[in-house]
Amino acid sequence: MRQLDGRALAAEITQELKATSADLAAAGVVPTLAIVLFGEDAAAGSYVRSITRTAETIDVRCVPRRVPGETTAEQFLAVIDELDADPAVHGVVVQSPFPPGLGGVTLDGHLSPAKDVDGATAASLGRLVEERDGHVPATAAAVVEILDRAGVEIRGAHAVVVGRSTVVGKPTALLLLARDATVTICHLETVDLAAVTRQADILVVAIGDPRFIRPEHVRPGAAVIDVGINFHEGRLVGDVDYEAVAAVAGALTPVPGGVGPLTAAMLLRNVLTAAASA
Ligand code: NAP
What we know:
Order of helices and strands: EHEHEHEHHEHEHEEEEHEH
Bound molecules: NADP nicotinamide-adenine-dinucleotide phosphate
Number of strands: 11
Largest sheet: 6 strands, parallel
Helix content: 25-40%
Structural class: alpha/beta
Strand content: 15-25%
Radius of gyration: 19 Å
Shape: globular
Distance between the termini: 43 Å
């Protein structure tokens, strides 16, 4: 079994991004990402730390913009409007999930596709469906990047994506489809999940259930990408039972150190693209 080392790949990518960033600096552009945060959430803190740490190494400026957890939709969207109109800001990312008071609120019509560097708006997702240029959600991009850099053939492969969220499962499935995989999406209503996942050459798991995927879900030799991030029994684990599945899979991402580190790199790549075309 080959462990797919997300940290090493992220280091490789940030090295490449440095060249883009240097070109922008030479043209007098300071690539800038605004990060909208609600209150003082610890989980958001670690994701944001990962983004800001990586950003520092490639000279992308991160501007945290904290809004109170009990903000109203009007106040929150006024902040998004302000950032969208600010020529010094090239990209905007908003902490997820939104606080309960903002249930049902979207960035649609407030964040323009050019600045939607995490592909969170309906406009960006629509472009993904239509296979038009646009920012792709960073986690989905990270999944495909890992497969590409590991030399896993996507074209013609049967890719099974477990999880159908708008932020991870669906965009990942669409990206794999755009790369000519045959894609199956599974969810809680899928009958006999293991029978479906065992057909996968590429198995992507994004469900938020600690160590749920076991060897019986995996076809021998399959490439397994674990997107899950779960705090379980005092430690960080994925949605895949790593030790058990390692005995069956051909390639497997660990958690931590798999998809996570690449997600920040993919987001920052989008910021550089946005800055270059602003
Ligand atoms: P989510 O919105 O809760 O969606 C979970 C999806 O998984 C749903 O579609 C659900 O099905 C499905 N599901 C849950 N349990 C299942 C099961 N036992 N069998 C089959 N399907 C099941 O979660 P999310 O935002 O997509 O996140 C998923 C995981 O990825 C979480 O652990 C999250 O922390 C992690 N994550 C990681 C990154 C990263 O960069 N590495 C980024 C974002 C999220 P239904 O639709 O039927 O309910």
